[in-house]
Amino acid sequence: MTATRVLFIGGSGIISSASTRLAVERGLDLHVLNRGESSTRPLPEGVTRHRADIRDPASVREALGDLEFDAVVDWVAFTPEHVQTDIDLFTGRTGQYVFISSASAYQTPPARIPVVESTPLRNPFWQYSRNKIACEDLLVRAYRDDAFPATVVRPSHTYDRTLIPLDGGWTQLERMRQGKEVVVHGDGTSLWTLTHHADFARGLVPLLAHPRTVGEAFHITSDDVLTWDQITHTLAAAAGTTARIVHVPSDVIAAEDPEWGAGLLGDKAHSMVFDTTKLRAVVPDFRPTITFEQGAREIVAWYDEDPARRTVDARLDALLDRLVERFRVG
């Protein structure tokens, strides 16, 4: 029996790298197309590599030749132009095209939780999310009008050991270790779902070339739901310290730092809890197992392995000082 042939466009990023490893472990004939530049997450043995730039369709055609695939996953498509390029490249040569969207495309703020796949897509706050929605709209039309075999996958805050979930990254962890206050948006009680990329992979890989996925959308998330205060305290404990939290309204943060604010108002400031019933109907054994306590220890250990990774953003550090001074209680 011939192994399922799958192409990953990308494959060495935060979300995708665990799926790359799991696909190989499960015997898929995995091909990866990228520019060959990642050293942080090297590709595993057993992958067939194709070097090309997906933004240069001619280089992709040259690299892939006449290969056909049971499934193609684009991990690095962010705009309708990117998706249209994929449609042009892979129409007639794949049984399934998987677009990695974002759960931030869901109605923001949500009218009700838990969020399900039929929750409306609308995010007036964050351009990143609006672009993902536009990509999905394009794929819906391509499926409806031309039977392009699209599947949409919506991750939500998927992390690996290199990604600190707090805005500011290591800057916030360093402040904790120095005994300085850190900033948490809002009152710290909104609920947030964090998904380890290995758990995400256990949901994604079984969807590849699955006959019940074409024309459908699935979010793949953990059941690990914490408040932002809990997330912050968990990271502090993993770093061997405590968190002195100062709460700052999200709209104030947005006024001071529009880029940080867009991700808050368009995503993190609102409670987001997900119902994964639809995914489990197709992948019955999907069960996330990695708690954030474990994930936080992995994160801190990775940063502590190399001092060069523990960089502090001086501009952000100064902004945090100003916000703390303004909103410190007592």
Summarize the structure.
Helices cover 39% and strands 15% of the residues. By secondary structure, the protein is an alpha/beta fold.
Number of helical regions: 12
Largest sheet: 7 strands, parallel
Which segments are poorly predicted (pLDDT under 50) over 5 or more consecutive residues?
none
Order of helices and strands: EHEEHEHEHEEHEEEHEEHEHHHHH
What best-fitting shape do the alpha-carbon axes yield?
globular
Secondary-structure-based class equals alpha/beta
Strand % is: 15-25%
Classify the helix fraction into a percent range.
Answer: 25-40%
Strand order of the largest sheet: 3-2-1-4-5-6-11
State the end-to-end distance. 69 Å
If you compute it from the alpha carbons, what radius of gyration comes out, rounded to the nearest whole angstrom?
20 Å
Q: If you average the pLDDT, what whole number results? A: 96
Number of DSSP-assigned strands: 13
Can you tell me about this structure?
This protein is 39% helix and 15% strand. The chain has 330 residues and is of the alpha/beta class. Strand 1, helix 1 and strand 2 form a beta-alpha-beta unit. It starts with a strand and ends with a helix.
Tags for this model:
330 residues; two-stranded parallel sheet; 15% strand; globular; alpha/beta; seven-stranded parallel β-sheet
List the helices and strands and how they pair.
Layout lengths: L4 E5 L6 H10 L3 E6 L13 E4 L5 H8 L6 E4 L5 H11 L6 E4 L26 H20 L3 E6 L2 E2 L10 H8 L4 E4 L5 E3 L1 E2 H8 L12 E4 L4 E3 H11 L6 E4 L1 H7 L1 H11 L8 H6 L9 H14 L8 H14 L3
Parallel strand pairs: 1-2, 1-4, 2-3, 4-5, 5-6, 6-11, 7-10, 8-13
Antiparallel strand pairs: 9-12
Helix pairs in contact: 1-6, 3-4, 7-11, 8-9
